[in-house]
Amino acid sequence: MDSMTGRAASPGIAIGPAHTLAGPSFEPSAREQGSVEEEAAAFKGAVSSVETKIWDLHAQMKERVGDEEAAIFEAHAMFVSDPEIERIALEAVESGRSAPDAVTEAFDGFAAMLAALDDPYLAARATDLVDVRDQVLAELYGVAADPLPSDPFVLLAEDVTPSQTAAIDPALLLAIVCERGSEVAHAAILARSLGIPAVVGVGDGLQDVADGTVVAVDGRAGEVVIDPSPERLAEMEQRAAAEQERRRRLSEVAAGPAITQDGKRITVAANVNGPELLDAAVASGAEGSGLVRSEFLFLGRPTAPDLDEQEAIYRRHLEAFGDDLVVIRTLDIGADKPVPYIDRSDEPNPALGLRGLRLGLAMGELLETQLRALIRASTAGRLAMMFPMVSSVAEVHQVSAMIDEIAAAEGVDRSSFQVGTMIEVPAAALAADRIAAALDFLSLGTNDLLQYVFAADRQVAEVANVPDLFDPGMLRLIQFVAESAHANDAWLGVCGEAASDPLSAAALVAAGVDELSMSPVAVAEIKDRVRSWRVSELEAALAEALGGPDGAHARGVFEPFVSG
Ligand code: PEP
Ligand code: MG
């Protein structure tokens, strides 16, 4: 028996026989290099045939799991036919390299660039590039994929690519365990949308597990037991039954509004981090989205999306949520999330640099195009647009003037959509009264607000415990933002991670927030909690927490709201 832990990528428990998915292996001597013309033709032929296969997979996945999950294959088709990758590969062929070497060089250059950015979303896109590269290489070498078992199995792999996942009949896939990968890798995303447990990042060691060995996977705890003892097996089976019961119970409470015992309605919405996550967000029972991170449209590509592409994707988000409000945040990038078409690489401290709305206002056209696309799309549903990294009321006035002008030019009634900003910079939190006066809503970005209030970089693991939402000073700031919003007829949401943590959510509702937006997997549980609370009791707890000595005391005060 061997126990491994990794990151919990998709909840659920499964027990079954292992099947290891070997990565593709290519034998360079199996292929003879031809003339420059022949190699160029081989490259183009392989690319075109992979592109056809990708579109076939896209059609299959659309049928199986829906449009949004299939969207990754649209991105793959874009990668395989990317003109920049083609140019680099053909140049390498011209200089005498074989087609496979040229493919490796061109794709790896891009993948390394993305992987180096220290951003899990972009690192996941690097895996996508490698997936596409291997498909082109397989085509050039004439290598076929390994046959899969015909009975249900637990898939073990170094990393599972979207095309490998798509090739597996979901009815046979009990769970996925990867040595590498992250929660935002597409294998994890697909696992979540298929409802299959997954644990990623368990580290080396899976290659030693023989096919057929019994493996137990707990995708909520991030635990994997290889060849469990009878006691361990019984314990995992018990956990599986409890998990099933929990799911059944939560699925029963996922629909409908979240109204506290004393009648306050809290909107429980889902954050959407990419179109492939849209279906899962809608299915979670979320009442709209409190944060669509539009970065996914802009990152990991050589040029910015144009007006039409943006409008189409925003429309898709608005249509998916029907009558519920969808808060689409404008581009939040800068040196922290670099893109090739905006060079901010020279900033010494990206978190404090030209990012978010600051960058948008400085670059003019990029923001203007996005605002126009949002305004054009606004007729498709209930749109709210939101700005990241706002630090002053002057920035709000500047962007509002742009919105007024574009709406007038597009013939769209300015009052047919909402406008708000994130409150994630301390200066904006302290100016919340004046900012709220100019807007329809505010949304607390607790991830950044905590890092800036406590001066603790969210990327630095050693200071991860420094910020504390329950610190009485922090709670006082949140309460001030809520009071400022309401005094100015604006509503207040929270779209940082704190919204999905029941204890933090209790404190946030106590402080007066109207909406909590979170990862779709947390929606049902938070609704369930909200329905058990009384605002009057939460407010009394907040008063006690604010009068107490520290964060630990404040946590203790809220603990009874989440126990049981
Ligand atoms: C936040 O800062 O809380 C937030 C939601 O934005 P992001 O995590 O994208 O910075
Ligand atoms: Mg933020």
Outline the structure in words.
The protein has 564 residues and is an alpha/beta fold. The protein has helices at residues 36-65, 67-80, 83-94, 99-115, 120-141, 162-167, 186-194, 230-253, 278-283, 295-298, 307-320, 357-363, 365-377, 393-410, 426-430, 432-437, 446-453, 472-487, 502-511, 523-532, 535-547, 551-558, and strands at 2-5, 7-10, 13-21, 153-157, 173-178, 198-200, 214-218, 223-226, 258-259, 265-272, 289-293, 325-329, 382-387, 418-423, 441-444, 491-494, 515-518. The strands form two sheets. It has an eight-stranded mixed β-sheet. An eight-stranded parallel β-barrel has the order 10-11-12-13-14-15-16-17, surrounded by four helices. The longest helix has 30 residues, at 36-65. It is globular, with a radius of gyration of 25 Å. Bound molecules: phosphoenolpyruvate and magnesium ion.
